[in-house]
Specification:
The protein is mainly alpha-helical and 627 residues long. It contains 22 helices and eight strands. An eight-stranded mixed beta sheet has the order 1-4-3-5-2-6-7-8, with helices on both faces. The relative contact order is 0.08.
């Protein structure tokens, strides 16, 4: 199958014998990498005719970053002939790195901030794609901004290697009926300075080529780095893995389809549909149209456009941004010029790398939508906060404490302003019926259990309301924050109730209490004086006169209860205010404890979610929080 070339035959006779062994080793390596041994042999035989080639070859491998090999085809003979194989000395000029515009930098910064805020709330697998995009964006930004890396991808037999050779103007990538033909990615650069970009793709120096030396072609495609990938449906798993790895790193993609497999489900479902958002950096080429008779090519092309539209791929028609769809034949050259022109305009814009990063950012943000976006209003309303505080106040018995304070105030007023005889009777009743303690202890234990249940129910309710409508990870974080705050909350409320309950000693007395006590004492004195007066008349010590002593006794007997009743009426207002004040203090204390232990941690989680939601809105480019 190897053709004999006259110049090659003469040059072969002058090759050194020690070169044969080296050629065999390199040929084996090239065969493993998917490069035709025939092509490499022709190149080496051409180089062998020049005595200084071995040393110059070694020097070039050490000094030239790109490691590219120039090849040329002599069209006059109609076959593959190698006219010259030459290397270029290393260029000292520095290729300017890629520069992202302001909006894209802002979106990348927002994504970086978003990932940082979310690391403690989301698992690493959820953030893996976003982290990969950030890493690739940072790596691509350090590399050449004057080059555009375009990969040619397609299924087995689609003719992508043939198209690769047609664009390069020289047979670089091996073609044939053997499958898979391309075993490893091969790169072809139209200008110097792309070594770091090709290194990033993991393509070794022996698989880097230069196109046919043509001033017109170099001017038209200057800055293009074309990569021929292994088949996407290759039977060799490692071939598919290599292709998919490179697809994640290139700036643009040329999808090559043929009339037989253009509707292949694997291509559309596994590649085109997931990458629909990358339409602006995609070319879809219908190859082998020379096999279609008449208007069949237009019909197949229209059907291809329909399938792309169903995949969600925007088509760049009528001046709109989207994928470029072309029909051509790499075998006959039909449509190659149109593709070359479209590639030239695409590369000259120097915007493919930024658009690819932007599309990757969109895809990563789209995958994160379920964990950041919600269509419901989230957060804790004032009503929910007030209800939580009310539940805690009910749990600590704030209302009962207020009523107890009111009763204590009234009891103190009765003791101060009541008749001595009634106070003596009440004292006697208290002494004659002391409490046993059993009923009180049982009631206290029941009250504590009930209070604990009320606190737990209040925490669950406020956590459910705060997490309502949130994405699952953030709702779980809110519930966990509430649960951590609820730990030890009943004990804290008990301690707080003891401190914020009724103050020790008697309740404060209003200014009219001394006057009421004095009047009540006067009524008692009148009763005593009237009674002693009557006793003195009975025993004959005093002159008989029933009117005055009876009047004094009746005045004291009637006036004492009247003064007590008046004091009760007057004491209701102050007693009520005193009870409400005690209830208010306990409610505020319970609310403060609940706020510090539950509401503030929950609010912190909600605030963090609002922050990440705002950052997510910046990543999407909306600049506002996403609901």
């Amino acid at each position: 199958m190897r053709k004999a070339v006259e110049s090659g035959t003469e040059e072969q006779q002058g090759a050194a014998s020690r070169e044969n062994e080296e050629h065999a080793r390199v040929r084996d390596g090239l065969r493993r990498d998917g490069v035709s041994p025939r092509e490499d042999g022709l190149a080496r035989r051409a180089a062998a005719s020049r005595p200084d080639v071995p040393s110059r070859r070694k020097e070039s491998e050490d000094t030239w970053d790109d490691g590219l090999i120039a090849r040329r085809v002599t069209e006059a003979t109609g076959g593959e002939q190698v006219a010259v194989v030459k290397t270029r000395p290393s260029a000292s000029r520095t290729v300017p790195p890629l520069a992202y515009d302001g909006p894209l930098r802002s979106r990348l910064d927002a994504m970086r901030e978003l990932v940082g805020l979310s690391r403690t709330r989301l698992d690493s697998r959820t953030l893996a794609e976003a982290g990969r995009v950030l890493d690739e964006a940072a790596a691509r930004r350090k590399l050449s901004g004057q080059h555009t890396v375009v990969a040619i991808a397609g299924a087995t037999g689609s003719g992508k290697s043939q198209l690769f050779n047609a664009l390069a103007g020289v047979a670089i990538s091996e073609t044939g009926v053997r499958r898979p033909t391309t075993a490893a990615p091969i790169a072809c650069s139209w200008s110097d300075g792309a070594a770091s970009l090709i290194d990033r793709l993991g393509i070794p120096g022996r698989l880097r080529r230069r196109p046919l030396q043509s001033a017109e072609a170099e001017a038209q495609l200057r800055g293009l780095v074309l990569v021929d990938l292994p088949d996407l449906d290759s039977a060799a798993v490692q071939h598919r893995e290599q292709a998919e790895r490179v697809l994640d790193l290139v700036d643009a993609i040329i999808w090559v389809v043929d009339p037989e497999k253009y509707a292949d489900a694997v291509l559309h479902e596994r590649y085109l549909r997931p990458m629909a958002g990358h339409a602006e950096v995609m070319f879809v080429v219908l190859n082998q149209v020379d096999r279609l008779p008449g208007e069949a090519a237009d019909q197949v092309l229209d059907d291809l456009r329909r399938l792309l539209d169903e995949d969600g791929v925007a088509l760049g028609e009528y001046g709109e941004a989207g994928a470029t769809v072309l029909a051509l034949s790499a075998l006959t050259g039909e449509g190659i010029g149109e593709l070359r022109e479209a590639l030239g305009e695409f590369v000259a814009e120097r915007g493919a790398a930024a658009r690819r990063i932007s599309a990757d950012l969109d895809a990563a943000a789209g995958r994160l939508w379920p964990v950041y976006a919600t269509r419901r209003r989230t957060g804790l309303s004032e009503q929910a906060r007030d209800e939580f505080s009310a539940r805690l106040a009910d749990a600590v018995g704030a209302t009962a404490a207020g009523d107890a304070a009111e009763r204590a105030w009234l009891r103190n007023a009765n003791r101060a302003c009541g008749t001595p005889w009634l106070r003596l009777w009440r004292w006697y009743q208290d002494r004659s019926e002391p409490p046993t303690g059993r009923v009180t202890l049982r009631a206290q234990a029941d009250e504590q259990a009930t209070a604990r249940q009320k606190v737990e129910q209040a925490v669950r309710t406020v956590a459910d309301r705060a997490s309502a409508g949130l994405p699952a990870p953030w709702a779980q974080a809110v519930r966990e924050a509430a649960a951590r705050g609820a730990h030890g909350l009943p004990e804290a409320l008990d301690e707080l109730t003891a401190r914020a309950g009724l103050p020790p000693g008697r309740p404060p007395r209003p200014g009219w209490w001394p006057a009421a006590v004095l009047v009540q004492a006067s009524m008692t004195i009148l009763q005593i004086v009237g009674g002693l007066w009557l006793v003195g008349q009975i025993v004959g010590v005093m002159a008989p006169n029933l009117g005055v002593p009876v009047l004094l006794m009746v005045s004291g007997i009637v006036g004492g209860p009247l003064v007590e009743w008046s004091c009760k009426l007057a004491a209701r207002g102050p007693a009520r205010r005193y009870g409400l004040e005690a209830e208010r203090r306990l409610r505020e204390a319970a609310a403060g404890c609940g706020r510090a232990r539950v509401l503030d941690p929950v609010a912190a989680e909600l605030l963090r979610y609002r922050e990440v939601r705002e950052q997510y809105g910046r990543v999407l480019g909306t600049g506002v929080a996403v609901r």
